[in-house]
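re: the backbone from monday

yeah here it is again, tokenized this time
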């Protein structure tokens, strides 16, 4: 029998449907800092494509110094911030639920909403810019 909203000595008891949405909300919050490596990846694939993974430095023919330096910063963002983000997502969506006895499949499925904040930001800038 499902619990309904009732009064307890400690306060209101929430129903089970709110607990089912917890993985979605947690992954939406994780999607906010994930916007940095996602945007850096987008810039490396579009604007900085000639210098995206060219590490030869200033002797290369991929453009002016700002192009080389910009690509370098975005590469670092993808590798370091993106790597730390992947470790955090692995911990939150797989390791934490598995160690506490929760359904890790639900958490892993909810990780599909990670790019939603970035996509909403891109759409907002496309509409209002």
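seq for it, each position gets an aa:
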């Amino acid at each position: 029998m499902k619990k309904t909203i009732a009064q307890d000595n400690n306060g209101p008891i929430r129903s089970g449907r709110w607990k089912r949405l917890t993985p979605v909300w947690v992954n939406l919050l994780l999607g906010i800092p994930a916007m940095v490596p996602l945007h850096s990846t987008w810039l490396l694939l579009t604007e900085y494509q000639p210098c995206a993974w060219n590490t030869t430095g200033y002797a290369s023919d991929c453009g002016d110094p700002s192009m080389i330096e910009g690509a370098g910063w975005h590469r670092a963002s993808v590798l370091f911030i993106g790597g730390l983000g992947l470790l955090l997502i692995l911990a939150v969506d797989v390791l934490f639920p598995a160690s506490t006895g929760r359904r890790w499949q639900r958490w892993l499925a909810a990780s599909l909403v990670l790019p939603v904040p970035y996509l909403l930001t891109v759409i907002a800038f496309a509409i209002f810019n």
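Helices lie at 16-20, 22-31, 35-45, 65-100, 104-110, 116-128. The mean pLDDT is 82.
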